[in-house]
Amino acid sequence: MMSLLRLVLLLIGLLPLEARAQALSADEMLSYVPPPFALGEALNDQGLYRVLNSGGAPAGYAFTTQPYAPLPGFAGAPVNVVVVLDREGTIVTVRLVHHNEPIFVSGMGEGPFREFFEQYAGKSIWSPMTIGTPYGGADSGSALVHLDGVTKATASVRIAHESIMAAAHSVAREHLQGRVAAPAARPDFDHAETLTWDDLMAQGLVSHLRVSNAQIDAAFAGTRWAQSDPEARARPDDPYLDLWLVDVTPPALARAALDQTTIDQMDRFRGVAPTDEFLLLIDAGRHGLVSEDFVRNTAPDLIKAEQGGLPIALRDADFLVDLAPGAPEGTALILRTDRRLGFNPAEPFTLLVEAVREHGYITPEIGRVELTLDHQTDERFFIREVPPVPVPPWLEALQNRQADLIVLAFGLAALVWALGARMNRLAGWRHFTPARLLILAVVTGFVGFWGQGQLSIVTPLAALRSAVEGGSYAFLLYDPFSLMVWAAAGLGFVLWGRGLFCGWLCPFGALQEFAHHLGRALRLPQINPSGRWDRRLKSLKYVALAGLVALVFLAPQHVDKAAEIEPFKTAITVHFQREWYFVAYALFWLALGMVLFKGFCRYLCPLGAVMAVGGLLRGRDWIARRAECGSPCQLCRVKCSYGAIEKSGKIDYSECFQCLDCVAIHDDSKRCVPLVLAARRAGRSGARPPVLVPQPQEASA
């Protein structure tokens, strides 16, 4: 065994790591972009492409998640999907490219996985999303978006979801111009504060821009429109634009800037458009804010706005505007914009005012200059609509399986206590065998079929790959139920070796033991390999483990297929609901178990090999021995179905499944040969039978 371990370590040191998955080429990416969109140019070397609409204009971005968020899945490799975003951060489509998730590779098939990704279409990456139904009776109308998971594969879809959102936000921070901003705000209509126009000016609640005729002339200098405004040259110091801007949606600001009749108009309008924000513009210059061709109740033709580099949709509110005392006289206009379209009134934005000149008379040429005015309203007039923050995926997994984890924790604690402090009494109990079978039935039903806690070689291989590649172990937290079983197995390594898991906590191992009892009940002939063949066959599991470890480095894309050497997924995870050849393979081992005691566990299980290696952490030889064990007594060795006792009487803990049969014999005065012989000698002499003190084994290396 140790030579095989050295071979494995040598392979780890010498074999090259798999190159990280390359970004998709343009042709490959194009096949994932749905019509009528087309693929534009590549924007970086991480596989990010611009997406074009049917007219050839930029419409969004397409990228794969692995270069941006290479979160390892349960096979150690990331789930790689294509995400197509529009320019507002809305997901157009999510398409699966590649994965090695064992449950979907050959368990359920990829159909449920692909159906899960279809849920993302139309959802905004700015919306908080989580997997599963609302926890704890949460309001279904919450802003938190819930995605349906996949039964028996919740951990895998959580990993995929985290990859999608992490990659999308990474792209957004670089290319969606700061849209990952503060939470949206709405006016606080209960904010009571008395202000005047002078207060607005003093506190910076009004933004002011004054552009003189001389300044606008300078802006057009050197163009064909430089001489097109005689009035500007005649009165250079007069204002061309004398503009004030204030958000009058908060009531305190409206009362300081507007007459009550105008406020009443806004209140009535708000009854049918509660998400509109109203901006008051006053111009005391000669610009006038709108052109002669402007149509009321439409978008202003000379005024635009943008926030975070993105345009704000403005529209004339069509109010008759009367100003409050103290406000400047001039052309007054109230524009409105809908906060649902992305405008955040508590964040800075920029107003863009066009200065327009004409050159020529018959077909005049139009020249334009943009004048900018920055504005931000103080935070105190708004209420931040802080979106609900999804709990971390590992915490959500704990919450969703809270009841199962509590039951499992109590069950594991009781089992450890029974096999520790009460082990000898348990082994000597006359109902021990029925009790053991009952425990194994609970393990099969609750831990296996219900809890999906069947451990697999896939997890150690994925952890190994993460360790070598410097990846994350976060994937282990997505399945807390199995993680608790792993923790119990780790505790078992220290206390007993591999026996706790292999003998008591493995659902498929329990099925094999049931098959053995069924074969005995049917009086089927039993296969008992000779000692030499038994040793040879037991080495196969280490060969299988070494081969799987080698595949992790040589051909990781085939690890998931090779791991099918375990029938666990077929028998336990998917309840035999898969292709016939997988079912036949699992049934073969169960049928063989009727005549060959736990053949798969003893001879071929690569996870059993891992458990045996982990059992080297065992700190004591917990099975008591006597000097007579092995010489002359061979009873325990003959009775051991696992072949875990050598002729010398020494226990081979790497093959011990903690069935406790030898413990029961050791303490039984009617079966333990040294005790029986001592009792006979005492009976012939009339003396009290001597007490034979168990001799501890020498500690194993």
Strand and helix layout:
Layout: H1 2-14, H2 26-30, E1 38-42, E2 49-52, E3 58-64, E4 80-86, E5 91-98, H3 102-107, H4 111-117, E6 129-131, E7 145-147, H5 154-175, E8 185-187, H6 197-202, E9 207-212, H7 213-220, H8 230-234, E10 239-247, H9 251-257, H10 260-272, E11 276-283, E12 303-307, E13 310-311, E14 315-316, E15 331-338, E16 349-359, E17 365-375, E18 382-384, H11 393-400, H12 402-420, H13 423-428, H14 432-450, H15 458-469, H16 480-495, H17 499-505, H18 507-521, H19 531-538, H20 540-554, H21 559-562, H22 568-573, H23 580-592, H24 599-603, H25 606-614, H26 635-639, H27 661-667, H28 673-685
Parallel strand pairs: 6-7
Antiparallel strand pairs: 1-2, 2-3, 3-4, 4-5, 8-18, 9-10, 10-11, 11-15, 12-13, 12-16, 14-15, 16-17
Helix pairs in contact: 1-20, 12-16, 14-18, 15-20, 16-17, 20-25
Describe the 3D structure:
This protein has 701 residues and is of the alpha+beta class. It is built from 28 helices and 18 strands. The strands form five sheets. It has a five-stranded antiparallel sheet. A five-stranded antiparallel sheet has the order 9-10-11-15-14. β16 (349-359) and β17 form a beta hairpin. 37% of the residues are buried.
The helix-and-strand class reads alpha+beta
Shape: elongated
Largest sheet: 5 strands, antiparallel
Global Rg: 38 Å
Uncertain residue segments = 1-21, 134-142, 696-701
Proportion of beta-strand residues: 5-15%
* Spatial strand order of the main sheet: 1-2-3-4-5
Please count the helical segments. 28
Mean pLDDT: 85
What's the total number of strands? 18
Question: Whole-Å distance between the termini?
Answer: 13 Å
**Helix proportion range:** 25-40%
